[in-house]
Design brief:
With 308 residues, the chain is α+β, with helices and mostly antiparallel strands. The chain folds into 2 domains: 160 residues, Alpha-Beta Plaits (2-Layer Sandwich); 94 residues, no CATH class. The chain has 6 helices and 17 strands. The strands form 6 sheets. A 5-stranded antiparallel beta sheet has the order 10-13-9-17-14, with no helix packed on it. Strands 2-7-1-8 form a 4-stranded antiparallel beta sheet. The longest helix has 14 residues. The radius of gyration is 21 Å and the shape is globular. The two termini are 27 Å apart.
């Protein structure tokens, strides 16, 4: 698999975080709407068998990367007030510049990281539900709130998101065309009213900065993921519970909600057993009570790291 970087520029705020499993689901629906159900069925079967045609990272603001989880556990040497303050700073670091990320990957950790820029601004908007009989708004209790996100372009000095991909040979054009169609449709919730609108900046660019790494004894994941039974278990990680929903036509299946799924967050690090693999994790089946055939993407976009 070869690594690529895709940059996108949102044209609006969005209500759905740019997480690898959600992006993957959107791309699968595009295959289905293209009348490529045979291709989609084979693609998903390969994914379930541990042979995906591509794996994705989450979408990251600007060129920032998630701070490895173990960074927050490091206690700086020394007993001065400055040492204590530096230790507290480490626990709050969520994002790293490329230079800082490379330093941590190589096991060269100091406490002089840049203060985290504000990456996303969050705001709440009021909406009113429509009375389907009257065709009007304004009934008691019709107001509801939506939490929206947007890139802090002024603070970051850019308005793009970066998504990293590992793609099998021969799938490059296919993957790029899926993203182009996604840019025409919009991403996530409320795309029918313009939310999640974005454009692709440039082309699918080869990205080799994660390669040719020496001295690795583990990996860091650049996506949320669900470990497979054979995956390493010794490491540092955080968890969260994903409350997913069915998309496309399956939204109208009677029960669009998936079962709650515990996932490990991007930035989780593990010691590797033997040679490092290009990805870890697995696909999760049995996730939808209404549609037993539905699977949930849970692969980790792995990057070599030295954890000593």
């Amino acid at each position: 698999m070869k690594t690529y970087c895709l940059k996108i520029k949102p044209h609006s705020s969005f209500l759905t975080p740019w997480q690898a499993d959600t992006i993957f689901g959107h791309l699968c629906w595009i295959m289905a709407w293209r009348k490529e159900k045979d291709i989609l069925a084979k693609f998903l079967e390969d994914c379930k068998n541990g042979n995906p045609a591509f794996v994705l990272s989450d979408g990251f603001p600007a060129d920032l990367l998630p701070a490895p989880v173990h960074l927050s556990l490091i206690t700086p040497k020394g007993e001065t007030l400055e040492d204590y303050q530096n230790g507290k700073k480490l626990k709050k670091i969520a994002w790293l510049t490329w230079e800082e990320f490379e330093s941590v990957r190589n096991g060269k950790i100091n406490t002089q990281f840049q203060e985290n820029p504000k990456t996303f601004k969050t705001f709440t908007t009021l909406h009113s539900s429509i009375n389907r009989i009257k065709g009007t708004t304004g009934d008691e209790g019709s107001l509801f709130e939506l939490e929206e996100y947007a890139i802090e372009a002024n603070k970051l000095k850019t308005d793009t998101l970066s998504i990293y991909l590992k793609i099998k040979n021969g799938w490059e054009e296919k993957v790029f065309s899926l993203f182009k169609d996604l840019s025409l449709m919009g991403y996530g919730r409320k795309k029918s009213i313009g939310k999640g609108s974005f454009e692709i900046v440039g082309e699918l660019e080869p990205f080799d900065k994660f390669d040719d790494f020496k001295g690795e004894n583990g990996f860091i994941s650049l996506s949320n993921f669900v470990p497979a039974k054979t995956d390493p278990t010794e490491g540092y990680y955080k968890t969260f519970v994903k409350y997913g929903k069915l998309g496309g036509e399956f939204t109208f299946s009677g029960n669009p909600f998936k079962k709650p799924l515990m996932m490990l967050t991007a930035g989780s690090t593990f010691y590797a057993n033997g040679d490092l693999k290009p990805f870890y994790g697995r696909m999760v089946d049995g996730i939808s009570p209404a549609k037993p055939e539905v699977v949930h993407y849970g692969y980790a976009f792995s990057v070599p790291i030295c954890l000593d």
